[in-house]
Amino acid sequence: MDQISALSVLANYGRRGNENVIFPFGAGCRNIGIYPYHEARSENPRAVLGLNDISARVALKRMLKEDVMTFAVPFSLYEEMEKNVEGSFLERGTWDQLMALKNKS
Prior knowledge:
It is a single chain. Helix content is 53%, strand content 9%. By secondary structure, the protein is mainly α. It has one domain (2-104). The mean pLDDT is 90.
């Protein structure tokens, strides 16, 4: 969940508003493919948080054995997020502290 939080921060960084990540209901494949494809065609593409389909979660839990979510982004948003990494929270103490706490668990 820490990674999802970080990706959400990057998807909102330097953008107007705070609704640049959506969490629509849909089948697993819809949230990692169809919704992001639709967002890629919009003027202000958003990231899509997914894996809220119960049947997909059952299938993946058998393989991954952990709670996971998906975070899909159109390529243009990916490039924007990548440009924002330098100098961001990922290079500051807070992220390091969070990762250190995770490693102690």
